[in-house]
Design brief:
This protein is of the alpha+beta class and 316 residues long. The chain is built from 11 helices and 11 strands. The chain has 4 domains: 68 residues, Arc Repressor Mutant, subunit A (Orthogonal Bundle); 50 residues; 84 residues, SH3 type barrels (Roll); 77 residues, Alpha-Beta Plaits, CATH 3.30.70.
Length: 316
């Protein structure tokens, strides 16, 4: 191995996260420690000449080793939090989740990888993805590309009834995640309306020859605003809801960021909330148990009371 090959080899080892000392280089490459020091100095000079890459050769005082330090890179706490969120969401099958976890860990040096693995190891061993085990990442990317390029797609879509499949020519508008699943909001030109499709139910997609619809400004889908009024992925009637709540206020504010606190006395609070009346809303309301009382609208009170009475009959 000549001098240039040795220098490249050292750099690639550092790039892989190794910590290297002069003594170790001298042993590995059968050179003197003086030569090893010269290699380190040359690498330092080269990296300084390419400082725009955000990489420098750092020195570890305690172990007398050199390692690559990258600017603006994720640290161990960042990677740990991202992996925790990924595992807790259970949004991807085990294979895709493992690929993402490994990609995140590879942003750390070997010691950092080891520490984070030890923390998440038990959680990963017991990881179980969603019931539907299809791969989603590539489909999400293709949909995102179509959104960016404003392309109409022909989508072959499996309906909730497993035996029924439909073809749609639609313009993808927005992708979001909600409770284990990814969804795509699309504009259906034929019916002139927005519909929401679950990504894992898309069996096939391709670019369509259908002309891109021209959406009026007043009819454009504003995903940020819409999501703040929704509890789940389904669409529903907009209502103004008034609740009496007797638990932690953040339970309401976390679910409804735009909720208005009208009154508070002791542990009793009155909220006014604009939201869409969907199955997800009803599920959330039931989940609050005796801490919650619906004050308005009356039709929601009646529907809720009827549902509770039906549930009560199951246990009589």
């Amino acid at each position: 191995m000549n001098d240039v090959e040795r220098l490249f080899d050292i750099f690639f080892r550092l790039q892989a996260g190794e910590y290297l000392s002069k003594k170790q280089l001298a042993f590995d490459y059968h050179v003197s420690e003086k030569t090893a020091q010269r290699d380190f100095s040359l690498l330092t000079y080269i990296l300084e000449c390419h400082s725009n890459q955000g990489i420098s050769l750092a020195y570890h005082q305690a172990t007398h080793q050199r390692y690559l330090q990258k600017a603006n890179r994720f640290g161990k706490p960042d990677i740990l939090v991202l992996i925790k969120i990924l595992l807790e969401s259970r949004s991807l099958n085990r294979n895709e989740t493992q690929k993402l976890v490994e990609s995140l860990l590879n942003l750390l040096d070997k010691e950092g990888q080891k520490e984070v693995r030890q923390i998440v190891n038990s959680e990963w061993l017991n990881y179980s993805g969603p019931y539907c085990q299809v791969d989603k990442i590539e489909t999400i990317w293709l949909l995102s590309t179509a959104i960016r390029e404003q392309k109409v797609l022909t989508i072959r879509y499996r309906l909730p009834e497993a035996t029924k499949v439909k073809n749609y020519d639609v313009l993808p508008i927005s992708i979001f995640f909600d409770l284990f699943y990814f969804y795509v909001v699309v504009y259906h030109s034929k019916y002139e309306e927005y519909i929401t499709l679950r990504v894992d139910r898309i069996q096939q997609l391709s670019y369509s020859s259908v002309k891109v619809p021209k959406l009026e400004y007043s009819n454009r889908y504003r995903d940020g605003d819409v999501r703040s009024f929704k509890v789940d992925a389904s669409e529903g009637e907009m209502i103004r809801m008034r609740l009496e709540f007797s638990s932690y206020l953040d339970v309401v504010f976390d679910q409804f960021p735009k909720a208005k606190l009208i009154q508070k006395e002791g542990n009793r609070a009155i909220f006014e909330i604009e939201c869409q009346w969907t199955w997800g809303l009803e599920k959330w309301l039931r989940g609050q148990g005796a801490h919650l009382k619906i004050l308005a609208p009356q039709k929601l009170r009646d529907s809720f009371a009827c549902e509770l009475e039906k549930m009560r009959s199951y246990y009589q």
